[in-house]
Amino acid sequence: xxxxxxxxxxxxxxxxxxxxxxxxxxxxxxxxxxxxxxxxxxxxxxxxxxxxxxxxxxxxxxxxxxxxxxxxxxxxxxxxxxxxxxxxxxxxxxxxxxxxxxxxxxxxxxxxxx
Length: 114
Hints:
Blueprint: E1 5-7, E2 9-10, E3 16-17, E4 30-36, E5 39-40, E6 55-56, E7 60-63, H1 69-78, H2 96-104
Antiparallel strand pairs: 1-4, 2-3, 4-7, 5-6
């Protein structure tokens, strides 16, 4: 039997988006049925040398319809984003104005600083 994936989300105001999970320790999370994400690194066929930058494919998940479904659908349709700084380690979500300033600067290089 597969181990379920539990997802905790927050809305644009930082409030928890409630799922329907009742499992102890995972209450009100969203249970995912499937989760897919991939990273592609182009390399030469002969030597295996890296020929480009990583390409990150979108995160795709499936879930049953529950109390979070309405919010998630609205978020996708209206492009609502999670609050700034709310993500797991290694992922930074910047506020909308910061993202716009970065985009408008013309700089397309990203430097990850720990």
